[in-house]
Amino acid sequence: MRRALASMSVLALVACAGDVSEASAGHDSSSGSSGPLIADTSTEAPATPDDGGTTQGGADGTSGDGAGDTTGEPLLGAPYPVVLAHGFFGFEDFAGVDFVTYYFGVVDDLEAQGEPLVFTPAVDPFNDSTVRGMQLLAAVEEIVAETGHAKVNLVGHSQGGLDARLVAHLRPDLVASVTTIATPHHGTVVADVVLGLVPNSDVQGLADELANLLGGALWSELEPDSSVFVALQQLSTPGIAAFNAMVPDAPGVVYRSIGGRSSLHGGGSACDVADAPPYIAELDGDLDTIDGGLALSAAILSEDVLSPEPNDGLVTVTSATWGTFLGCIPADHLDEVGQLLGDAPGLGNDLDHRAVYRGIVAELRQMGL
Question: For 215-244, what is the mean pLDDT?
Answer without folding.
Answer: 70
